[in-house]
Amino acid sequence: MSLISVGTMAFDAIETPFGKTDRIIGGSATYVAYAASNFVKPVQQVSIVGNDFPQEEMDELSSRGVELDGVEIVKDKKSFFWSGKYHLDMNTRDTLVTDLNVLADFDPVIPVSYQGAEFLMLGNLDPKVQLSVIKQMKQRPRLIVMDTMNFWMEIALPKLEEVLKEVDVLMVNDSEARQLSGQFSLVKAAKVIMGMGPKYLIIKKGEHGALLFHENNVFFAPALPLEDVFDPTGAGDTFAGGFIGHLARTKDISFENMKTAIIVGSAMASFCVEKFGPTRLKEITKADIDERIQQFVNLVNFDFSLTSE
Amino acid sequence: MSLISVGTMAFDAIETPFGKTDRIIGGSATYVAYAASNFVKPVQQVSIVGNDFPQEEMDELSSRGVELDGVEIVKDKKSFFWSGKYHLDMNTRDTLVTDLNVLADFDPVIPVSYQGAEFLMLGNLDPKVQLSVIKQMKQRPRLIVMDTMNFWMEIALPKLEEVLKEVDVLMVNDSEARQLSGQFSLVKAAKVIMGMGPKYLIIKKGEHGALLFHENNVFFAPALPLEDVFDPTGAGDTFAGGFIGHLARTKDISFENMKTAIIVGSAMASFCVEKFGPTRLKEITKADIDERIQQFVNLVNFDFSLTSE
Predict the structure, then answer these.
(1) Is residue A308 included in any domain, yes or no?
(2) What is the CATH number of the domain that holds B91?
(3) pLDDT of B94-103, one tens digit each?
(4) ipTM score assigned to the predicted complex
(5) Which end of chain B is more exposed for a tag (fewer CB within 10 A), N or C?
(6) What's the rounded mean pLDDT across residues A139-161?
């Protein structure tokens, strides 16, 4: 039950109210891989890196069942680099530097060995790249999940709309959902966006949790209330990795199971924010994950029988 | 199993992006009574109004099992009046007018017939008034719930701290919890505030739901995602009325039952915001409430068994 994950593998420099790191591994596909590989193997990675991406990181990913045949290494260029600074509320951040480097040339070729994958996670990338990946799949995956961002809505909306017609699940944050739909109400926004193609829509609200929409149904998963959110970088991608990882493991793409997948994604994201970059994701065990999911159960479970007279 | 509700009965003028009303019934105790009377009778009201408060409103409340012996009518003054305007996101509002009128003299006397009440809801009022009510109770109620606001933290903190030592449950919004505790993290804020007296703390986050803290436990209830929030006025008080109404009906003040009570409160608040003022609360039936609570169950329930291998 393989899963293809397409996205960036990169370096980040991050400043939060709690500290600063000048250079740490990042990238959407990195976070997806660290999260999803807890649930499904192989995770078939599609990305591009420069000559500066550490071999130890590649080895670490390999040891977790992440296949790297689809990761292009460009010998004379550097990896994608992003630098940002978070505000006190951790919900907003300023981008300080974006050095595309190798990402400017990213035109992924899906390895023959990846063909037949049943799950496809398209990280936030140029919609032209996302579409190219979909077109390369000889057999359409059972489930295609995509992430995107406001930037593509602004500069590549027609192409983005084309991709939206091809995917099953779209993941965006609340402000992106509003921008894409032109609706302020998230319930109305969801209807508009599902009319654009995706049968399922996940709206991420950061510390305020996530909503899953499908037809007239809606499900809500809270974020775990934490003493400190140390670094939110990668939380959305980690959420995505947990979500699609759970679906791939259970081979069940029903709405009911997507609810559970969102809880799994939220649990994984709650680890991600505890330390800089993917540091915490490398430490956690299956037992840690199970315990964290139980915390989510305790967080939202209540005795419904008491509400009836 | 009677419940005393202390608070304002007033007029509001409200402007939202959806419309405007120049004069509608409002006040914290009004909303608490309309919500709680669905679950428990009598609701023993303690408030103060002027010569302008409509008899039909009093009759309507009476017909719902709200006792008005504790509502003082001041013949030569007007009722409390508040006017506010909501911004597009409905999470923020500007107060345009606050005419205290009768509220300036509010020094409630608990009627003898109210003595022995097991539940006490202290609406947002001068902490000096809240403390006076507690002191007047010959037998301490089983559960005292209080609301307050940033205004009292700024001008009457020592008195507020005195009241906090006497109550079981404090309800505040997220910014008030941060202000009262001096902590940005709500988890840390909760620890500080519970150290000030209340064994239970409810932090209301508006459209982002509510958190219940007790010792090391936390429970989260979402707000129902609505197509439109028409008017948020009174939603917090309606939440409080549903919360304490459910507890009074079930006579169970355990943490487990408080979780359910928070869902009931959230369901009642979700009705409140659908129309101006308490309009919607006057229309709904037991069947409507049951159906709405079921929507909350659907909103958060997921199959935990799927998360284990």
Answers:
(1) no
(2) 3.40.1190.20
(3) 999 999 999 9
(4) 0.91
(5) C
(6) 97
